[in-house]
Amino acid sequence: MIHDLDATIERLLSDELRPFGFNSHELDVSFEPPTSSFGNKLSKASVVNCYAYFIRENRDMVDLQPRHARQPNGTIISQRLPAWIDVHYLVTAWSQAATDTTAAEHRLLSHVALVLLRHQRLVPADIFGGVFPGGFNTTMQQARMPAIIARPDSLEHLGEFWSTMDNTWRPALLYVVSMPLDFDVPIVEFMVTSKVTDYMHTDDESTSAASADTLIQIGGRVFDPAAPALNIPKAVVQLKEVGLTTETDDQGRYTFLALQAGIYTVYVRAAGYRPTETVIHVTGALTEYDVAL
């Protein structure tokens, strides 16, 4: 997805540098390493180089709680929210001007700084006008990505960078964009409605004497065995031994609260189906008590 961020920055600079006299025939935005040979192979008269030299996780923007979507068949789709990473770019300007190359590069870099400072959040939906390049990540399309021109950690690091590139120092902007990384793969699982709660109570005469009651919540779905993915709403569900009755919700699920462990007869009926009975063993295990009607 970093290549989608590259494409966003390229489109932003190409569009917003045009009013300053840098049209598409004269301006190129490159993401190649600015090595010693880079200046000898410039494709156009003016080039903005945005080299992603450092990437790290942004823990401040991470939400570790997954999002859950309940499905009609009783399953839950669980998907982690995107992680966020900070992409650090070293932005430099390059020119093939016949005279006063340094001034031309400074002029270009100052306009680049103006454009980047104007956009403290990159919003691909706005930058591309809703028409994205093929394969552009869907999470990034509507993202609002914080972006800043940062100060360097130290001049020594910059010196090491240019030495690694085998190139001389150049004026540069350190540009940092926070972008989402979507995990993409959802996890499909069954929703568990069973729950066990232990209640402690003390003797009236002595708080040192205590005992516990265990109450169990159970649940499940009522479905059509001819089409197991089809849950049945508004089915009447009864527990005969304790005289409890409930009705399945719009997604065919039912719940009983505050039961003791034991054996129960579940009686289920619904319009258009033959009533059925099934025996369940409630033990406190986190399981589902589904009934085929």
Describe the protein in words.
- The model has no long low-confidence stretch (mean pLDDT 85).
- The protein has a 6-stranded mixed β-sheet. Strands 10, 11, 12, 15 and 18 form a 5-stranded mixed β-sheet that branches. A 4-stranded antiparallel β-sheet has the order 14-13-16-17, with no helix packed on it.
- It has 2 domains: 2-63 and 83-182, Alpha-Beta Plaits; 192-292, Immunoglobulin-like, CATH 2.60.40.
- Helix content is 18%, strand content 41%.
- With 293 residues, it is of the alpha+beta class.
Write a concise keyword list for the protein shown above:
single chain, 293 residues, alpha+beta, Alpha-Beta Plaits, 2 domains, 6-stranded mixed sheet, 41% strand, elongated
